[in-house]
């Protein structure tokens, strides 16, 4: 049986911190679906289609990773894809508190899917998509924070 994991997020945009988690998950699971979800509480800079394209380009070097999107509940999507696991990255204690609430609800909705938390690499512990967008808006150098395709897409958005 193939061990399938879903790495969900809004990925607006994907950062090197996200890629670190995705790459590490790809070494543990047979297949990882990076799923772009629309977060109603956020006003995205990139459309879902643009985020999927950027993720596809940024992960094209990882053979067992695919990119998809979903507009509903994560646990419904996991059931649909017959996934065994959800992979979430943690940067700090504050992330854990938030993720614990989500994981508890997800477990109530579908107890057959396990959630695995992966601690981010220390060099990305401060990094968030929001922060990247904020500094890119003022034309700051983000080349060491995001893949090249994202750096260019940010430049295009803010021109």
From TrEMBL:
<dbReference type="GO" id="GO:0005737">
    <property type="term" value="C:cytoplasm"/>
</dbReference>
<dbReference type="Pfam" id="PF01467">
    <property type="entry name" value="CTP_transf_like"/>
</dbReference>
<feature type="binding site">
    <location>
        <position position="74"/>
    </location>
    <ligand>
        <name>substrate</name>
    </ligand>
</feature>
<feature type="site" description="Transition state stabilizer">
    <location>
        <position position="18"/>
    </location>
</feature>
<comment type="subunit">
    <text>Homohexamer.</text>
</comment>
<keyword id="KW-0067">ATP-binding</keyword>
<keyword id="KW-0547">Nucleotide-binding</keyword>
<comment type="pathway">
    <text>Cofactor biosynthesis; coenzyme A biosynthesis; CoA from (R)-pantothenate: step 4/5.</text>
</comment>
<feature type="binding site">
    <location>
        <position position="88"/>
    </location>
    <ligand>
        <name>substrate</name>
    </ligand>
</feature>
<comment type="function">
    <text>Reversibly transfers an adenylyl group from ATP to 4'-phosphopantetheine, yielding dephospho-CoA (dPCoA) and pyrophosphate.</text>
</comment>
<protein>
    <recommendedName>
        <fullName>Phosphopantetheine adenylyltransferase</fullName>
        <ecNumber>2.7.7.3</ecNumber>
    </recommendedName>
</protein>
<keyword id="KW-0808">Transferase</keyword>
<feature type="binding site">
    <location>
        <begin position="89"/>
        <end position="91"/>
    </location>
    <ligand>
        <name>ATP</name>
    </ligand>
</feature>
<comment type="similarity">
    <text>Belongs to the bacterial CoaD family.</text>
</comment>
<dbReference type="GO" id="GO:0005524">
    <property type="term" value="F:ATP binding"/>
</dbReference>
<feature type="binding site">
    <location>
        <begin position="124"/>
        <end position="130"/>
    </location>
    <ligand>
        <name>ATP</name>
    </ligand>
</feature>
<dbReference type="GO" id="GO:0004595">
    <property type="term" value="F:pantetheine-phosphate adenylyltransferase activity"/>
</dbReference>
<dbReference type="InterPro" id="IPR014729">
    <property type="entry name" value="Rossmann-like_a/b/a_fold"/>
</dbReference>
<feature type="binding site">
    <location>
        <position position="10"/>
    </location>
    <ligand>
        <name>substrate</name>
    </ligand>
</feature>
<feature type="binding site">
    <location>
        <position position="42"/>
    </location>
    <ligand>
        <name>substrate</name>
    </ligand>
</feature>
<feature type="binding site">
    <location>
        <position position="99"/>
    </location>
    <ligand>
        <name>ATP</name>
    </ligand>
</feature>
<dbReference type="InterPro" id="IPR001980">
    <property type="entry name" value="PPAT"/>
</dbReference>
<feature type="binding site">
    <location>
        <position position="18"/>
    </location>
    <ligand>
        <name>ATP</name>
    </ligand>
</feature>
<keyword id="KW-0548">Nucleotidyltransferase</keyword>
<feature type="domain" description="Cytidyltransferase-like">
    <location>
        <begin position="6"/>
        <end position="134"/>
    </location>
</feature>
<dbReference type="InterPro" id="IPR004821">
    <property type="entry name" value="Cyt_trans-like"/>
</dbReference>
<keyword id="KW-0460">Magnesium</keyword>
<keyword id="KW-0963">Cytoplasm</keyword>
<dbReference type="GO" id="GO:0015937">
    <property type="term" value="P:coenzyme A biosynthetic process"/>
</dbReference>
<keyword id="KW-0173">Coenzyme A biosynthesis</keyword>
<feature type="binding site">
    <location>
        <begin position="10"/>
        <end position="11"/>
    </location>
    <ligand>
        <name>ATP</name>
    </ligand>
</feature>
